[in-house]
Write a structure and sequence with these properties.
Strand order of the largest sheet: 2-1-3-7-5-8-6
Number of strands: 11
Number of domains: 1
Largest sheet: 7 strands, mixed
CATH topology: Spore Coat Polysaccharide Biosynthesis Protein SpsA, Chain A
Structural class: alpha/beta
Radius of gyration: 16 Å
Order of helices and strands: EHEHHEEEEEHHEEEHHE
Strand content: 15-25%
Length: 217
C-alpha cells in the first residue's frame, strides 16, 4: 500500500503541516509521500473542472470557498486515478492529518475505509472495533484519512455525481464505505485553505477556541 498526503507545494503552511503528518505516520511505521495538490492557481484549472464534469453548484453550500473545494476534489481525484491505474491500495491523507496510533498491516476492508476521527459537526461513535460499516454519519466527516482499493477508485471515477469530497463519500452513493475504530488519525487545524468562516465555525478545533485562519490555497 502506498500512502500520500495532499500538499500545496508552494504554500509554506501546507508544507509544514504535511511534514508533521509524515513524521506522525513514521512513528507507527507508515511511510507517507507528499502528493502535489491542485489549486485554483494550477494551470488549466477551469479546464480540469470541465473535463471532470463537476457540478459547480453542488460545491456552493456556503461552508467552503467554491474554487478551493473544487480543487480539493480534483486533488483527491488524481489519487483515485492513480489507484485505478496501478491497481494498488492507496492511503489518502490531507495535510492537517495527524496519526495518533497505528493500524494492523494488511487488515481486511471492503473497497474504502476511513481512519479519521470526524473533524466537524455532530457524529456517532462506533460501537465495535476494527473495520466496520460507516457509522459516524452517512458520509465521511472529513476526508482527511482514508484507504481505497482500485474497485472503489473505479466507482468514484465513474460517478456522475460530484460534491465536496467528504460529502461525496457517502453511503447512498457507495454503501460499502467503512471506518476503522478506534480512529487513528485526527486533524489539527491551525489554518484552512478550503473553508470560509462559516465552515471554520463548524470545526471541532475552532469550537475548542483555537485560532484557525483562512488562508489562500
Amino acid at each position: 500500500m502506498k500512502a500520500y498526503v495532499i500538499t500545496i507545494l508552494d504554500n509554506d503552511l501546507s508544507q509544514e503541516a504535511a511534514d508533521t503528518c509524515i513524521a506522525s505516520a513514521k512513528r507507527y511505521g507508515i511511510e507517507v509521500e507528499k502528493f502535489p495538490a491542485i489549486t485554483p492557481r494550477t494551470e488549466g484549472f477551469q479546464h480540469r473542472v470541465a473535463l471532470a464534469n463537476l457540478d459547480i453548484e453542488a460545491f456552493s453550500g456556503g461552508w467552503s470557498r467554491v474554487e478551493n473545494a473544487l480543487a480539493c476534489f480534483l486533488s483527491h481525484r488524481e489519487l483515485w486515478k492513480m489507484c485505478n491505474e496501478t491497481r494498488e491500495d492507496i492511503m489518502i491523507l490531507e495535510h492537517d492529518a495527524i496519526f495518533k496510533d497505528g493500524i494492523p498491516k494488511n487488515f481486511a476492508f471492503n473497497k474504502c475505509i476511513t481512519l479519521g476521527k470526524p473533524s466537524y459537526g455532530n457524529f456517532e461513535t462506533p460501537t465495535g472495533f476494527g473495520a466496520q460499516p460507516l457509522s459516524q454519519a452517512k458520509y465521511f466527516k472529513g476526508a482527511h484519512a482514508y484507504i481505497i482499493k482500485a474497485s472503489a477508485a473505479e466507482d468514484f471515477l465513474m460517478s456522475i455525481i460530484s460534491r465536496p469530497t467528504d460529502i461525496f463519500l457517502n453511503t447512498f452513493n457507495f454503501p460499502y464505505l467503512e471506518e476503522y475504530y478506534p480512529w487513528v488519525v485526527e486533524v489539527e487545524d491551525t489554518f484552512s485553505t478550503i473553508q470560509n468562516k462559516k465552515g471554520l465555525e463548524a470545526k471541532h478545533t475552532y469550537v475548542a477556541g483555537r485560532d484557525v485562519k483562512v488562508v489562500a490555497a
